[in-house]
Amino acid sequence: MDTLASLRDEVLAAVGAAGSLADLDEVRVGALGKKGRLTGLMKELGGLDPEARRMRGQALNVVKDEVAAAIEARKTDLEDAALDARLAQEGIDVTLPPRPDGVGTIHPISQTMDEVIAIFAQMGFAVAEGPEIEDDFHNFTALNIPPEHPARQMHDTFYLPPHADGTRHLLRTHTSPVQIRTMQEQAPPIRIVAPGRTYRCDSDMTHTPMFHQIEGLVIDRSTHFGHLKGCLIEFVETFFEVSEVPVRFRPSFFPFTEPSAEVDIGCSRKGGELTIGAGDGWLEILGCGMVHPNVLIACGLDPAVYQGFAFGMGIERIAMLKYGIPDLRTFFDADLRWLKHYGFVPLDLPTVTGGLSR
Ligand code: PHE
């Protein structure tokens, strides 16, 4: 018994002293391996008489279990220590200041989109997307613009070659088809903004064939024009980062909204310089209105139950106003000097609380 007790102490001490997984394995083989010392004692059991064999066997098993458990525990400790050492060695210091040089800049269109989305996200709007290649139904008909409607001519649409049945796909002329897709896919209450590219066959000082819009849509049981006004006034003040911007809702016409309005913001053009928020000038920045009952019906919603508002605005236009970019066409010239001048630092993500633009 004494030899067993001292063997146990000796092995346990060796386990505790093992400094590496390899050392530990050596100790394990020496005690529990085929030719290990405990295994050797087990083999001697056969020579004992039954009563002595039972007693000795029990004692040996206790020691064996104890040693195995000690080895397992030590193994976990060593593995943890190895992992800690690796983590310490491979760690990245996230407190190091970022080095934005050499990674380019964020294009003002992307920046402006992100800013607008951040503002509406803060108000509880989700982002929705739709295809740039649309069909006639989503781009026109469902938006209360039936075939032969004069509004179709106003849109300078790019059509794709006709299909065998005579129908033609087109490049969406506005982001409003995303309203239709959203109402078809999800039940009210709906609160989305849909940013994206839009196309019109038009190219001059103030038009490019591809441009960007962001659409907004809110549908619920009791949404009214007051909500529309409050929401857009809040947006304008947050986006232009000036409080108390004069905002004017001027009656207008869109086939898919009734009543419709265009929103103007106050500005001054004193000394040839444009300042948002003061003065006696007005600048149009977006179109909006209460969703037309025919649009709700086209999407399977009952206009006696649901109502809401929609708005749409051009990203280039509000980017030019906010950042003093004088020429629309420069947005798409891919001129590196322009991008360096008007671009934004990639690591400054716009948030309403942290600052939209810095
Ligand atoms: N789709 C309109 C346009 O492109 C903008 C708009 C959207 C107006 C939603 C009213 C409501 O001019």
How would you characterize the overall build of this protein?
- The model has no long low-confidence stretch (mean pLDDT 91).
- The protein has 2 domains: 4-90; 107-342, BirA Bifunctional Protein, domain 2, CATH 3.30.930.10.
- The protein is elongated and about 110 Å long.
- The longest helix has 41 residues, at 50-90.
- The chain is built from 12 helices and 10 strands.
- The chain has helices at residues 2-17, 21-32, 37-44, 50-90, 108-122, 136-139, 151-154, 177-185, 225-240, 293-298, 315-323, 336-342, and strands spanning 126-127, 133-134, 170-171, 190-199, 210-220, 247-254, 257-268, 275-276, 281-291, 307-314.
- The strands form 2 sheets. Strands 1, 4, 5, 6, 7, 8, 9 and 10 form an 8-stranded mixed sheet that branches. The protein has a two-stranded antiparallel sheet with strand order 2-3.
- Bound molecules: phenylalanine (PHE).
Summary of the model, kept short:
The protein has twelve helices and ten strands.
Characteristics:
single chain; about 350 residues; alpha+beta; BirA Bifunctional Protein, domain 2; 2 domains; eight-stranded mixed beta sheet; two-stranded antiparallel sheet; 12 helices; 10 strands; binds phenylalanine
